Fold this protein.
Amino acid sequence: MTDVTGRDLTASADLDSPADRAHPAAPAAPASRGALADPTHPADLAGPGAPRTDRAITAALLLLTTMIAFENMAVATAMPVVAAELGALGSYGLAFSSMMTAMLLGIVLAGPWTDRAGPLAPVFWGQAFFAMGAIVCGAAPSFGVLLVGRVITGLGAGLVIVVEFVVVARTFEPAQRPRVFSWMSAAWVLPSLLGGPIAGWLASNVSWRWVFWVVVLPAGIAGGLLLLRRAAGAAV
């Protein structure tokens, strides 16, 4: 049957038959991974077949976490000696409140910074600030300079604490993330047990300044590991 224009209406009706309505066509298959390659996806950056568990990145995260935990635990033990030597026993609490305030600022800044630039820049500058703050604290000739160092250290620690989670999300498969997070949580345990005794021994037998300086080298190593993995194509 045709209409006035000569078009076959029977063929059109067949296209919308009851059988077609009962069994609609299957949706198109999703495009292949290659067609939707995402430059921020770990597999696309590391190359096909690359292992998703990166030991260098894991080691860097654990080093950073351990150093932040040690700094928090050790300084609490050594601070009475520090305050007494610098003549600031009455301002003892400022050494902790200044760092905690700066850490909160770092946590707030880390989110938008990571959204704009990715995690590499904030985690690198976080560990750099953390190390620089420790150097300033260890070399402080007065309590005021020590407080400046504590602020720098807290800012760096706040950046690192937030961005570590972003690095884990971008580097590891979902099934691997709980294991990495458990290792990061365990990295607080050893400093909690040994941080106080080590800090007490350093303050009594060497110098309280080494309580701050001892974290500088591991923090630098952690930053170097992250930069090396980034240069090798890891998703950091």
About this structure: The first helix runs from residue 9 to 15. The CA atoms of residues 9 and 63 lie 74 Å apart.
